[in-house]
Amino acid sequence: MASGRTNPEPNEEDSILLKMGNSYAGQLKTTRFEEVLHNSIEASLRSNNLVPRPIFSQLYLEAEQQLAALEGGSRVDNEEEEEEGEGGLEPNSLPNPFQLHPPPEGCCTTDGFCQAGKDLRLVSISNEPIDVPAGFLLVGAKSPSLPDHLLVCAVDKRFLPDDNGHNALLGFSGNCVGCGKKGFCYFTEFSNHINLKLTTQPKKQKHLKYYLVRNAQGTLTKGSLICWKGSEFRSRQIPASTCSGSLFPALESAGPLASFPSEPTLGTNPGILMGAQQAGPASDHPSLSAAMGPAVFNGKDSPKCQQLAKNNLLTLPRPSALGILSNSGPPKKRHKGWSPESPSAPDGGYPQGGGNRAKYESAGMSCVPQVGLVGPASVTFPVVTSGEPVSVPDNLLKICKAKPVIFKGHGNFPYLCGNLNDVVVSPLLYTCYQNSQSISRAYEQYGASTIQPISEEMQLLLTVYYLVQLAADQVPLMEDLEQIFLRSWRESHLTEIRQYQQAPPQPFPPAPGPAAPVTSAQLPWLASLAASSCNDSVHVIECAYSLAEGLSEMFRLLVEGKLAKTNYVVIICACRSAAIDSCIAVTGKYQARILSESLLTPAEYQKEVNYELVTGKVDSLGAFFSTLCPEGDIDILLDKFHQENQGHISSSLTASSVTKAASLEVSGTPVCTSYHLEPHSIRPFQLAVAQKLLSHVCSIADSSTQNLDLGSFEKVDFLICIPPSEVTYQQTLFHVWHSGVLLELGLEKEHMTKQRVEQYVLKLDAEAQTKFKAFLQNSFQNPHTLFVLIHDHAHWDLVSAVHNLYSQSDPAVGLVDRLLNCREVKEAPNIVTLHVTSFPYALQTQHTLISPYNEIHWPASCSNGVELYHENKKYFGLSEFIESTVSGHSLPLLRYDSSFEAMVTALGKRFPRLHSAVIRTFVLVQHYAAALMAVSGLPQMKNYTSVETLEITQNLLNSPKQCPCGHGLMVLLRVPCSPLAAVAYERLAHVRARLALEEHFEIILGSPSSGVTVGKHFVKQLRMWQNIEDVEWRPQTYLELEGLPCILIFSGMDPHGESLPRSLRYCDLRLINSSCLVRTALEQELGLAAYFVSNEVPLEKGARSEALESDAEKLSSTDNEDEELGTEGSTSEKRSPVKRERSRSHDSASSSLSSKASGSALGSESLAQPTGLPQGEHARSPQPCSPSEEGRAPGEKQRPRASQGPPLAISRHSPGLTPQPACSLRTGQRSVQVSVTSPCSQLSSSSSGSSSSPAAPAASTLVLQASQCSLTKACRQPPIVFLPKLVYDMVVSTDSSGLPKAASLLPSPSVMWASSFRPLLSKTMTATEQSLYYRQWTVPRPSHMDYGNRAEGRVDGFHPRRLLLSGPPQIGKTGAYLQFLSVLSRMLVRLTEVDVYDEEEININLREESDWHYLQLSDPWPDLELFKKLSFDYIIHDPKYEDASLICSHHQSIKSEDRGMSRKPEDFYVRRQTARMRLSKYAAYNTYHHCEQCHQYMGFHPRYQLYESTLHAFAFSYSMLGEEIQLHFIIPKSKEHHFVFSQPGGQLESMRLPLVTDKSHEYIKSPTFTPTTGRHEHGLFNLYHAMDGASHLHVLVVKEYEMAIYKKYWPNHIMLVLPSIFNSAGVGAAHFLIKELSYHNLELERNRQEELGIKPQDIWPFIVISDDSCVMWNVVDVDCAGERSREFSWSERNVSLKHIMQHIEASPNITHYALLGLRKWSSKTRASEVREPFARCHVHDFIILNVDLTQNVQYNQNRFMCDDVDFNLRVHSAGLLLCRFNRFSVMKKQIAVGGHKSFHITSKVSDNSAAAVPAQYICAPDSKHTFLAAPAQLLLEKFLQHHSHRFFPLSLKNRDHPVLSVDCYLNLGSQISVCYVSSRPHSLNISCSDLLFSGLLLYLCDSFVGASFLKKFHFLKGATLCVICQDRSSLRQTVVRLELEDEWQFRLRDEFQTANAREDRPLFFLTGRHI
């Protein structure tokens, strides 16, 4: 007992662990100091332990006697305090109210009232008269649901104990004082009546707490405690508040317990411990383990053991419903202990059989075996009879300094009674054993019945092995144990497993161990043998009869102090023949404390801490601290300091910053260049992620499921949901505001207010519901807006709304589920949900709603060493931090503080009743306070802090002095528990005030619920730095604190996504809750430090290294510097050299934190990784150069820094880096003193310090420029992170694959492992593979919102419109998703927009000077007689023919100006001008458009099977081709009514045609044919909207090889399939066949309908031939002022194609026109172009063709280009009318694929795939030229287009002398004009009598061209001729027939052919010159 300790010398263990702080220049003047120092050195020399004894811990222990007295005093009222404690710990809302019967209908169930509705609370009825029968007393009962109230009850005093705690009758008798009901005989019944609502069996001992007495005023008040003794149930309840009244208890750790892969591989060979894996390959050999024994088990000394230490940290998933105690009551009379396990306990919510038996008892309650535990009946033994409970000794906690944690193992567990408050009983080990037993079930599906589970004996033995090899500072992990069992089991069944498992098993160490299993008789002996090597850390107790005897023995040994060095007690009872009983007690103070605290849920943890603060339990801690300081209480020192320095401190210390500020205002601009707030820019990575998100959304839309119809949305709206953190809220508003996304989405106008932005961000707090309802309403009212619901920080609050047990207390919990998973969101077709998180694991379970295909992971920065996106900043996240601890050449960024940990451990033993979070916080705050004092001029306080804290404080205070503007650094102090954060804030603020440092740095208390508050002085500074004019401005996010020197105390159980500024230098996470080790929690805390560093500095060298902000001034004090030097080395003495030699050790006090050492003085940016020499070796040769020198930015030299303050700069031990001689300056000089010491001893410190150097004066001149703003370095270096030792070990230890151990922890507290039989995660897994791993191996707990997902009955429970974006913390996910909204909006606009050709008509100035104009401007239709008078305009005006040859006519006003340079062919499409147009409701669409209206049109017709269509052959003969043409129609069932089929037989006979006289407005009369190639996806064939729903006949004309793909995309369209001979033909062939087929069909219809009495001329003769890129149609409305007037106004509007077609079809005399067409739309259209409503000219793109009139005019089926111009000229020359409606226009969409662009001309020789150039398209006949794979006609046309000047040199740019082209129009290029003449008799031709031609082109001329015809034309001398024929013989025949040799001369070399192979039938030409 503490108070009874007589030995003034502390025992060794205490002294080692109680070291606090590091002794610098201590001012201790006592003789005790030398004595202790001497003893310490002597002890360390003698000790086989290599750890030197700390000195100060022994001094501290002198205070222990005072403490003991003090503690004894505070414990007098121990009973009462503990009883109070219990009330405080009862959970608020309780699982499964314990009720034998449901309360009667209609009765009151309110807490604090009885069922009759009467108030029983003491506060309410304390003044009311209460009728108390004789023999009854009033007592106060405690209700767990009302911790602050006592309920008044009247109880018969016979059933209450006397003052000694004895003589209470069993049973109960009581009355209700509220309603007066009497005669309750059972406490259970009574507790129901008064609504106690218990989770456990009601017990009077537990719930009747206080006697109630009346005071002098007659008021009823709380009296003394009721002294229940014998069966005292003061258990610390730990049931979680997770399941109110539901049948599914929230078994937070139900089912298979989380098991974590761990490294120590224990072999199955029972006698041999497999050594640590990291001990090298040798450890795989069992024979070595014996040799390893002492090394491994000797505490922390061996590096191997260290490795193990890293791997075996504790992570116990917290049992949250410890005890589903809704079972039937205990046997009524057995009050000594009661088993909460009985057959009626429900097995709710366990996914696996193995977990079913694990009942989760509340820790500390009697944890009893299944009913019927009795030893062999006849056996009795003296100590404890088997049926009796084991009594827990009183004052156990006081004696042991920790509550032992007892893990139930195998078999039965005895009753416990007595002081149950001082033990914790947990079923976790039992569950672990159960799960490992069920491993073999995984193989049952393979029928592997032979595989046996691992035996109980083996399990226990392996457990002992595992405990034996744990180091003294390690805590056992159930997960490690599970992995050990799994490996052992796998090994023993390796051969069988191989049969059933295809994948090769993991490699295991060979264990040839004996085949015979361990028997229960051998077990105790083997266990003892294993434990014998571990120096008593594991103690095995063997029982003969039952565990009870072993437990009693253990308690006895504990009380006698015989287990002081023992951490684990293994109790085995192997007497029962069938099975063994076992349990394991953790008695090590450190381990027991951590394990018991890890069983608390976060809510309970906060509650416990809160309780300790509220009840003042922590005061004893404060009192203890005040005894440590030699000068007395710190506060007294502070006051003294304050009074002494009140006058001048402000002048000296604040001088620097104040004068700077003043000088700034005078001189104007600040000098500091480092300060700039990041401009808002989007990084390449964010852009890439936004694009990935967009493509996922598109793929949802493209899938056949019709879940998202992107085509129907016009705009994007969004709502961002964030956790209820004010800072995150402001930060998100800031991002949204500055990203400009609201303007881009068109949601807001230019000048938006903050209030407007707030509409788009939703804080998930109590008010969220109304805002969310408005969002839903909005989405419902705007079906054409796509709403993106962004759930940021999505791993927060995944509690199911159904399962929300906090509903009464905290309405915000479960909110995410209530809002984001509500039916409206799930079903709304226009809401896409995007979850964004850095820790997606809880959303990746077996029941997740998010499809794995909808997950987007942040891309890796480089792939195979290649940077994917060049960024000027490098992200520094968790993996980089871990890497910094491994690499050997830079200082680690992750560290732990060993002296702090030691102090905490020591105090933990001293104050066993305080939660370690409280102790840690108080110690750390004390360290900060002492460090602040030390830096401010109380150097003696150095000894009361640690090196780490001192470094932080120095840099915090010194950084503003190094910057001309006073910019400083931020220290983040993470205190998760809010009440503790408030305590820390008040204390630090008090110390700051006393030290007059209020102007130097700010202390900010950051909690999620409140905003940022910063003092006025600092707000002013921030405004000045950030150039903010607004006087009202206050920082609202942490990012706005850039450059502010401050300590940010960051509270809240979880960070909520708050970003921190770049000036963050230290992330102090020493207070995070290290007992709750879950991957999400750990990564979330470490994510606070994630950072972007500038890429300029090579990270390998410079930037990783420590930031040395500390000033040269350091901690110098004006008095005795020599003494400071003298004690310099003492810190390093404390560290074991072995430990320092491990390159992995980042025990920062000794090595890494020496950081500020030389660097501070030398200005160096980096130090070498400590080599940590043992003491004798400090004279090692100095390193020639600091490694940072090479890695430094150019121009930055290594310079000594000036000390701006008092004299000496002592740099703390620099790790293994002695300076260059030039820099080690003499210590004697006062100007600049620099001493650089190695980390070893005082000797080196003084020796290097005193070496003199001539460089001193030079150094002092350099110093002023050397001072550098801390922000400069901040940009290049991530912050330094301090972790608790436990967490540090967990994070830096890796498994065999190199995966940090932390990554293989349970991913999130709301999920659990689906099975302990699972592979390990591996480092090589990508994010996607990790996701799939978690999806396979984790299941949500019942409290998780996805828990019920699979029950909905759908096999795929995925929600189609849900996406998950995950990426490391602080990497820029917000920017990425805001960018995604922008690109999504742009894409939607893009989907509703289209690029249409927008080019003005060409050759306007060459328009025919006609003698007649069509002046009836308002005519809706052309007047036939007037129209005939118009002359035909030969000139092409369509801009797509810009580089086509001009056609001359006699009307031309010929001007010989040049038409400009022709373009290069490949530029043609690139450079055509387009305009972006919004699609109207009358547009034609491609296959990507889906909307409700055109479902049926597209083939989703209810009456017809999808894709149901029939193939019909249709043949007709055509004389010119000389053969029958066979075409095929594909006709969908829904379109068969357009055709006539023969009866019977169903042969296709004809396509139905309407009559000219039909006047219906319901359909379009003309069938539309659209020839198409290569555009099955992009062609605009969906005419449903264009036709405004009108019935029409639309036929796609496709090539045979494309038939299948077109049919797939357009299942409901009629296809006309061209014969295979046309597969390589051009558009001419399609036009030719369409026209011929239509004429043939017209004849058939005339014949068919003639029989019905209809005249042939009444059948409708028109068809439409439309391009596949016609997208919209417009009409021009003209307002004519007068009929002949010149002035008129016009406007253009979009109309449906139906409107235009019906208008044109209604034209009078329409059958007299051969070709009708529309103008091509252009934004540049002039009034003159639309002034005349009709024109007689060329028509293109969309033509209405009269197949009757044009029967004898054919399209040229060989043509690829200009075939429409050619056809127009022929129609005109045949004397037919072409009419263009100028008031109608067609818009053509630019489509980048397909069409004639799909013809690529390449060589036929396979090895040369490069495209040939046009000059190579012709060659001499019979040459060895490379033949090209292209049709001859295409080669010809392309050649003439680009190189016709070779054939017609005189015609070049010679418009007065065109080339005469007979019967055809071929494009000879834009610089050559042609004159078209037709050789047909009676054709219309221009008069050519006065024209001299410069050339003659005869192309495949027929018999109409004769010699006499050609003689009519006149040619220039030297004009050239080109004759083109199908073959060489016809070429000769033509020359002879036309008598060409009379006027033209030919040479042999003038014959050419197209560059085709002979089988491709090349064309041949002959050229000649006019004589």
In brief:
The chain has 1971 residues and is α/β, with parallel strands linked by helices. It is built from 59 helices and 58 strands. Strands 36, 37, 40, 41, 42, 43, 44, 45, 46, 47, 48 and 49 form a twelve-stranded mixed beta sheet that branches.
The average pLDDT is 76
What structural class do the secondary elements suggest? alpha/beta
Distance between the termini: 133 Å
Relative helix content = 25-40%
Number of helices: 59
Strand residue content: 15-25%
Shape: elongated
Q: Largest sheet, if any?
A: 12 strands, mixed
**Which radius of gyration do the C-alpha atoms yield?**
46 Å
Which regions are unreliable across 5 or more consecutive residues at pLDDT < 50?
A: 1-30, 49-97, 230-386, 502-515, 649-670, 1097-1266, 1453-1469
Using DSSP, what is the number of strands? Answer: 58
Protein architecture, described:
The N and C termini lie far apart (133 Å). It is built from 59 helices and 58 strands. Helix 14 (456-468) runs parallel beside helix 17, helix 33 (898-910) crosses helix 34 and helix 34 (916-935) crosses helix 35 (947-958). The protein is an alpha/beta fold. Strands 36, 37, 40, 41, 42, 43, 44, 45, 46, 47, 48 and 49 form a twelve-stranded mixed β-sheet that branches. An eight-stranded mixed β-sheet has the order 34-54-53-55-56-58-57-51. The protein has a six-stranded parallel β-sheet with strand order 14-13-15-16-32-17, with helices on both faces. The longest helix has 24 residues, at 1627-1650.
